[in-house]
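Worked problem 6 (solution included).
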Amino acid sequence: MPKTVEQYLAKGLDQKTAEYYAAGRRRIVAVEPNDDFTLTLDFDNGERRVLDVKPHLKPDTVFEPFMKLENFKRVYLDEYHSVCWDIDPTIDSKDVWENLVDLCPDSCYMESVPVANHN
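Solution. The predicted structure is:
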């Protein structure tokens, strides 16, 4: 039985997150990197949304290599529909998981905006 917003709020989730989970989780079906360090994401419900990744791109973090546009553009979706980058593109992250940097589909949806609302 589907859970309601109120049930998720009772578990301690904030309003936005409770509404997302109550409406049903979304799966990313396509990702496209943009020159302004945003990602255009297509979701399984037909929505196209834009995620600004710049807040994650900071020195001395796992995201530092992707501050370079050529590295940022190596983004892909894994088998879990997460947004991923390999720190070293010559290493298979399936064999060396420490090489993988990823963002889960749930946070990508909640942190993104519909394409029509993107400036």
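Discussion: The domain at 26-117 is CATH 3.30.2020.10 (NE0471 N-terminal domain-like).
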